[in-house]
């Protein structure tokens, strides 16, 4: 009985102690609760500000690199074949467009020229670094005017097209063809491969197979006086300076009757090749496909015998 009584008092005292301890803890929590809340608020605020600071302090993105527009190659954009080049000749020459002839005066005298064209002898000026000649001759022409360049074969155009652009002219186009003109205003052009169509004596003579006037044809482009002093038997005399460059249409009518098949082999010669090249350009401009120039000096006696120098 004593033992149970003792246990009762111990249990009661323990419960009282626990209750008192719980009361003290609640008082401490009530005392320090605002402090804890404040600390928590400070922690949250610092975290928010820290994140905001990190986002605003991130390095700015580097600007996108500027892509430069590649410079256009004038050979791709301003060098034209005949049809495209001639289509630009709309309106009045020296008003709506300008034609610059890069040939020499001697070439122009023989081959004729476009009426109203402006001559700059490229071999005597531009080829010798005299680029200022462009401004000297074209100074009164606006820089954005339509300018059309041509020469004899396209070679001088290719060599000097960029020089006109560098001089400030922004609307310049060059003809990439062999040209053909006459005194009546004919303008023509042809594609000629000088490596295969301007040939040396052995290759030229080798094409004389079969019967002349049937299997092949020879056109002597020397003047009539030279032709009469001695010529190849069966050759057709059409002096370049007397026929092709005087009246292209009338001359081609004669050629058409003598050589109706435009795929026929035509061998063209003169004294050294200059006039033969003129005739070749006229023939090829009209669609004759197998025209070969003798690229060599040839001497012919009154009996038709010939030698090469």
TrEMBL record:
Coiled coil: none annotated. The keyword Transmembrane helix applies. The chain crosses the membrane at residues 32-50. Residues 93-190, 212-301 form the Rhodanese domain. CDD domains: RHOD. Pfam families: Rhodanese (PF00581). Keywords: Membrane, Transmembrane, Transmembrane helix. SUPFAM superfamilies: Rhodanese/Cell cycle control phosphatase (SSF52821). GO terms for molecular function: thiosulfate-cyanide sulfurtransferase activity. The keyword Isomerase does not apply. InterPro entries: Rhodanese-like_dom (IPR001763), Rhodanese-like_dom_sf (IPR036873). This is Rhodanese-like domain-containing protein. It comes from Desulfitobacterium dehalogenans.
């Amino acid at each position: 009985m004593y033992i149970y009584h003792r246990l009762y008092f111990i249990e009661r005292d323990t419960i009282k102690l626990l209750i008192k301890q719980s009361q003290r803890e609640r008082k401490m929590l009530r005392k320090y609760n605002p402090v804890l809340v404040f600390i928590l608020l400070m922690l949250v605020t610092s975290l928010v500000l820290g994140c905001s600071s990190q986002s605003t302090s991130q390095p700015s993105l580097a600007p996108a690199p500027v892509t430069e527009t590649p410079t256009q190659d004038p050979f791709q954009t301003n060098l034209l074949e005949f049809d495209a080049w001639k289509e630009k000749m709309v309106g009045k020459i020296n008003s709506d467009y300008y034609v610059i002839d890069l040939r020499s005066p001697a070439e122009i005298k023989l081959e004729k020229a476009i009426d109203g064209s402006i001559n700059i002898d490229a071999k005597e000026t531009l080829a010798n670094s005299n680029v200022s000649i462009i401004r000297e001759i074209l100074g009164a022409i606006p820089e954005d005017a339509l300018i059309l360049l041509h020469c004899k074969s396209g070679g001088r155009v290719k060599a000097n097209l960029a020089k006109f652009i560098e001089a400030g002219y922004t609307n310049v186009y060059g003809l990439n063809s062999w040209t053909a003109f006459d005194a009546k205003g004919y303008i023509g052009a042809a594609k000629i491969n000088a490596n295969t169509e301007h040939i040396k004596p052995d290759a030229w003579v080798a094409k004389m197979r079969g019967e002349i006037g049937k299997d092949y044809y020879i056109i002597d482009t020397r003047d009539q006086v030279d032709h009469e002093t001695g010529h190849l038997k069966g050759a057709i005399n059409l002096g370049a300076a007397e026929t092709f460059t005087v009246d292209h249409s009338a001359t081609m009518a004669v050629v058409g009757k003598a050589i109706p098949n435009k795929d026929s082999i035509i061998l063209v010669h003169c004294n050294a090749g200059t006039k033969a090249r003129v005739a070749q350009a006229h023939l090829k401009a009209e669609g004759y496909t197998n025209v070969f120039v003798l690229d060599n000096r040839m001497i012919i006696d009154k009996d038709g015998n010939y030698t090469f120098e």
